[in-house]
Specification:
Length: 955
């Protein structure tokens, strides 16, 4: 079985503006000051929001602040952040880029971890550099993050020492400083392109000529490559001081003991006798309107932006929090209207958005943006602004408002239900923002109750008043970004102002909120039954076979309080269709998914699902078709209705189809000017010639997609459920979910077909080649080195293949970045498949300067050859093993992990209990076994070298 690799998971912080619908039987545990606040009438809503009582907060005599909280999700883990109110805005002209440079140097030599010992030590403890151990620098702050296991006392002690060293004990050795210059230059080089070049031109306008426009954290090449080492040492001494710092610690820890350690370690930090004043900078409003057109030869589309700037409205009081709720309700309602317009048969823009949000530098803004269709800037501008004018004249409907408030209420209820499962990362972010920006840090109970009690007090008129207050004709920037070749056709300010005036004079009609009263399904299914049940020992999973042949795998868990994940597959997919029908087949599920289901079209379905935690989407892949979805217990009936609907009442609406085709064709217009597209297209054509299933489609090919046939193909693939396998994981019992299985899944159609996916025989060439692509003006190179071939798919082989990927990523980073200062980031990535026959790909990628790419390719190949000749170093192998063990500890308590493991085991005809043997197999990986895999698959004659160079660069 292929052990799934760790997924990057984004944890949504408990947004100020999460929402609710509470159980009436709930007994409030609301903090005393929160109860007092809510006991007052609206005239007293200026009371400050209550602070989270579950966190221990203190400040040392030297000014250093700390936040410490116990949280056991995940168990045996702690997340530590060091926040500094030090960013690029504090730099002088001679120091531009040093705040960011200093962040880098904190990974290259600390008092207790000289040179690169920090990364090496933490990797040996299973901490991943980049995804775990990381940092960032912005205009106003620098933040270091370190999530580590908390069940190892020595590691916990050393983790805290790392934070102390980061705070004030960087070594800043001249040799390490000089080595880091090249790495930061590669980071700077990698970001250069059309977006960065245009940003350089519009930022001074957007930021009203303030200092921010000249203090981008990355700095300047002149400073990064030429500053004297003493300058960064002085910057460090001046700004890395306790009164500007805070540590945030959240995890499975003893709070009292951790507080004592923080006091012991951080109390000796010194502040300069005459500390530099930390000046607060801001973007001043100019009380005038501005206009700018920026073009670039590599810009593939035309984007219009209207930014209306306002003074920042901080959220400090209950009243502020109430206003923030209303801003988010406004955003959701206006966005829903734009989404409806985008589904018109010939939409006026490729995409569009309107929202009220914070900018920075003490500003908020109403942002109006759209991506125009080629040659249709006026149409896109008017269509987007027209919706704001329609709102301004007629407001929102009461039904839109009630539906949106209900969605917020449901969201708040969901967040509250999962409060004891909330990850430590979510808390850390909240406390960090409290330190940096004095943002609210509500406790779970306070947030729930305050939001619950505020939502019913909101009125439609108040929400409308907020939108109208932000939509004004002052402090407005109009910025147009477009392709250089279209410069002559892009409008100037007078023309845009005239178009806006024309919209103002239009005889608009009020928005009609069309809500269907029809049930989702035209007819209810005929109930089936469970035919057999089989226990899968060891993983607490049951296999059920239903009366129509559908197979269902049930794994009840307690990882979340109210989360149920669903996945389904059936063999076949687009492999059963000819090349001429491939694009129609491969896009069929997307069009069906975008068209609603049953008796509800897309707009009606979206409104119907508002306030429900339900999502179900069909897919049609190369070798299978199926569905994926999620729900809570309350939404299960709706989720299973949708599943039944996609099998029996799918729809592909004409407006959705026409809109999708039109927007796709529009987005393809200038893609040949984009170096990344040209490079990607060249790679796919080198590997697969003109095979329609592997290459990027042309506009002419997109036009061949047939609407009628797409729906027919979708129906064909979902006409027979007897060979479908459903996997359901989450917070349910068999008794709770069985009625839905019988009523809906057992009622799905059964034709008794025996199908299997077709082997298309699509493989990469047996011999590697070098392909150089010349596109773009920036003096940078992009390298992709890839090996392809047949693969002996098996448990042991997969384990060693994963080890090879991980170990080579470590050695490449050490060689290409740390030793040669040639790249900002690099790594290896391996993937393999079992069907239709064992195949693998193994890639190494990096960006660098045009004068270094050849030597770095040779260095990368040298690292590959070392492993092939001698195997990996035991220390690197040990890092892989401990990382896998530590990651598995976390993954075993995630519903998504189990869904993927069980479903993929059945799809690949493998043992679903392999995970129980995983650690035993992991411990068998050896230097010799990794060496053998490297020798087998990283053969030099299978190496493809793809290199992107600028057009003017000659070899």
């Amino acid at each position: 079985m292929r052990f799934l690799k760790p997924l990057a998971v984004a944890f949504l912080l408990p947004a100020t503006f999460a929402s609710v619908d509470a159980s009436p039987s709930h007994i409030s545990l609301l903090a005393k000051d929160a109860k007092h606040i809510l006991a007052q009438d609206t005239l007293n809503w200026q009371n400050k929001l209550p602070f989270d009582k579950e966190v221990t907060v203190g400040r040392l005599k030297n000014g250093f602040k700390y936040y410490i909280r116990k949280n056991v999700e995940p168990e045996k883990r702690v997340t530590m952040y060091l926040g500094l109110k030090v960013g690029s805005i504090l730099e002088t002209e001679e120091e531009r880029g040093l705040a960011h440079f200093l962040e880098h140097m904190n990974f290259n030599g600390l008092k207790h971890f000289p040179k690169n010992d920090l990364v090496n030590y933490l990797q040996k403890a299973g901490v991943r550099f980049g995804s775990d151990l990381n940092a960032y620098t912005s205009f106003e702050e620098t933040v270091y993050q370190l999530p580590i296991p908390s069940d190892d006392p020595e590691l916990l002690k050393n983790g805290l020492q790392v934070m102390r060293d980061w705070a004030q004990d960087a070594l800043l050795v001249t040799e390490e400083i000089d080595k880091e210059r090249g790495i930061i230059m590669e980071e700077m080089r990698g970001s250069r392109g059309a977006s960065q070049r245009m940003q350089d031109k519009f930022l001074p306008v957007l930021l009203n000529g303030s200092l921010y426009a000249n203090r981008l954290p990355i700095g300047t090449e002149e400073v990064v490559t030429g500053f004297k080492p003493d300058l960064i040492r002085d910057f460090h001494a001046k700004w890395y001081r306790p009164d500007l710092q805070s540590i945030i610690i959240v995890g499975d820890i003893d709070v009292d003991q951790m507080e004592k350690e923080v006091i012991r370690l951080f109390s000796d930090m010194k502040t300069p006798k005459n500390p530099e004043k930390r000046t607060e900078h801001s973007v001043k409003l100019l009380n005038k309107n501005q206009f700018l057109v920026v073009t670039d030869a590599e810009m593939p589309s035309t984007v219009g932006q209207i930014i209306i700037k306002h003074p920042e409205e901080k959220v400090n009081t209950v009243g502020d929090y109430r206003v923030s709720l209303m801003k988010n309700i406004f955003n959701q309602m206006i966005s829903s209207r734009l989404r409806e317009i985008s589904q018109q048969p010939n939409p006026p823009f490729i995409q569009s958005g309107i929202n009220i949000s914070s900018l920075f530098g003490g500003l908020d803004n109403l942002s109006i943006s759209f991506v125009a269709k080629p040659g249709k800037f006026e149409e896109g501008l008017k269509a987007t602004v027209r919706e704001l004018d329609r709102f301004q004249k007629f407001g929102f409907t009461e039904s839109e408002f009630k539906r949106t408030v209900a969605a917020f209420a449901k969201s708040n209820e969901t967040v509250y239900k999962e409060r004891d499962k909330k990850k430590s990362d979510g808390y850390v972010g909240t406390y960090l923002q409290h330190f940096l920006n004095d943002a609210p840090a509500l406790g779970n109970e306070d947030r729930y109750q305050i939001t619950k009690q505020l939502l019913p007090t909101l009125t439609l008129k108040e929400v409308e008043a907020i939108g109208k207050r932000f939509y004004v004709d002052n402090n407005r920037d109009i910025i147009i970004l477009g392709p250089e070749k279209d410069k002559a056709n892009l409008p100037q300010e007078a023309q845009v102002i005239a178009w806006l005036a024309e919209v103002d004079k239009e005889n608009l009609t009020a928005y009609e909120d069309k809500v269907s009263e029809l049930p989702l399904l035209a007819k209810q299914p005929v109930k089936g039954s469970v035919k057999s049940t089989n226990e899968i020992a060891g993983i607490q999973t049951k296999e059920l076979v239903l009366s129509n042949g559908v197979k269902v795998l049930l794994k009840p868990t307690t990882f979340k309080n109210d989360q149920i994940l669903i996945s389904a597959f059936s063999p076949g997919g687009t492999s059963l269709y000819s090349d001429s029908e491939y694009l129609t087949a491969s896009n069929a599920a997307a069009f069906v998914n975008g068209s609603g289901v049953g008796q509800l079209n897309a707009i009606e379905l979206r409104k119907y699902l508002t306030g429900k935690n339900v999502n179900v989407s069909p897919y049609l892949g190369e070798r299978s078709e199926g569905l994926s979805g999620s729900s809570d217990k309350e939404g299960l009936k709706t989720a299973f209705e949708m599943i039944y609907g996609y099998f029996t009442e799918p729809r592909l609406d004409d407006d959705v189809f026409q809109s999708g085709i039109a927007r796709t064709l529009s987005s393809m217009e200038n893609r040949e000017d984009d170096p990344n597209f040209v490079f990607s297209d060249a790679m796919s054509r080198t590997l697969y010639s003109d095979n329609v299933r592997r290459t990027i489609p042309s506009p002419e090919q997109i036009k061949t997609i047939n609407q009628k046939r797409a729906l027919e193909i979708f129906k064909e693939r979902f006409a027979d459920a007897s060979d479908f396998t459903f996997t359901i994981v989450g917070s349910f019992t068999e008794e709770e979910i069985k009625p839905y299985l019988e009523q809906y899944l057992a009622a799905l159609p059964n034709l008794g077909r025996k199908e299997s996916a077709k082997d298309l025989g699509i493989v990469e060439p047996a011999k590697g080649v070098e392909k150089v692509v010349r596109k773009g003006k920036e003096a940078k190179a992009q390298v992709q080195m890839s090996y392809y071939g047949d693969y002996a798919y098996a448990e042991k082989e997969n384990m060693n293949f994963d080890a090879l990927e991980s170990i080579l990523s470590i050695t490449l980073l050490e060689r290409l970045r740390e030793d040669e200062s040639g790249v900002y980031g690099t790594g290896a990535r391996g993937s393999s498949s079992k069907y239709p026959k064992g195949r693998y790909s193994f890639s190494i990628g990096f960006g660098t300067s045009v004068d270094k790419y050849e030597s770095l390719i040779n260095s990368a190949i040298d690292e590959v050859n070392k492993i092939k000749a001698n195997g990996p170093k035991q220390t690197d192998l040990d890092k892989f093993v401990i990382e896998q063990k530590r990651q598995l500890e976390l993954q075993l308590k995630e519903n998504g992990f189990w869904l993927g493991q069980i479903s993929s085991a059945y799809q690949n005809n493998e043992d679903p209990t392999y995970i129980l043997r995983y650690l035993d197999e992991l411990n068998k990986v050896s230097v010799q076994s990794v060496k053998e895999v490297a020798e087998k698959y990283l053969k030099s004659d299978r190496l493809f070298k793809f290199i992107l160079l600028p057009e003017e660069q000659s070899k």
